[in-house]
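[recover] target loaded
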């Protein structure tokens, strides 16, 4: 199963690199459809189970927000790329902040410090570019996502041993 996941990550990554334009065009529909479906699923689960509804109100709220934003992505299509890019940029800035925290914590520790600083600078640079140019820089971020997925698949492959690989 783990080998399948590694292969899937590598394949999706390669598709992102090779077909970033078409993926950028259809992503609002794919992401919007997924968000809408997840929102509906949250609502169904909430209303089917009458136990502790007040304690699970956040599930219904999250589901409703996912449904609305997903539907808006579908309706607006490619015009929602700006909002998607801005959201992606904000997540990237949060990751950059985490990298900077790690750099500060590793101050004086050689390679760990420099690796975290480089990671911070790369994440900050790309996130700021996407934040201020969400439509123009979105497609290149699809390519970067593809490269990251390929890199992750190689890292995961190195960690897999035959004894841990379970076939389902």
């Amino acid at each position: 199963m783990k080998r399948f996941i590694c292969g899937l990550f590598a394949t999706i990554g390669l598709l992102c690199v090779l077909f970033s334009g078409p993926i950028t065009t259809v992503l609002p529909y794919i992401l919007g459809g997924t968000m809408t479906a997840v929102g509906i699923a949250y609502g169904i689960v909430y209303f089917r189970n009458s136990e502790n509804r007040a304690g699970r109100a956040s599930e219904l709220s999250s589901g409703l927000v996912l449904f609305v934003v997903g539907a808006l992505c579908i309706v607006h299509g490619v015009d929602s790329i700006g909002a998607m890019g801005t959201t992606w940029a904000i997540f990237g800035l949060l990751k950059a902040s985490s990298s900077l925290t790690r750099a500060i914590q590793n101050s004086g520790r050689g390679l760990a410090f420099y690796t975290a600083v480089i990671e911070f600078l790369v994440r900050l640079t790309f996130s700021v570019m996407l934040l201020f140019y969400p439509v123009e820089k979105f497609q290149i971020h699809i390519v970067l996502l593809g490269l990251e997925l390929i890199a992750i698949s190689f890292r995961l492959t190195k960690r897999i041993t035959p004894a841990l690989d379970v076939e389902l």
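[recover] notes: The chain has one domain: 2-159.
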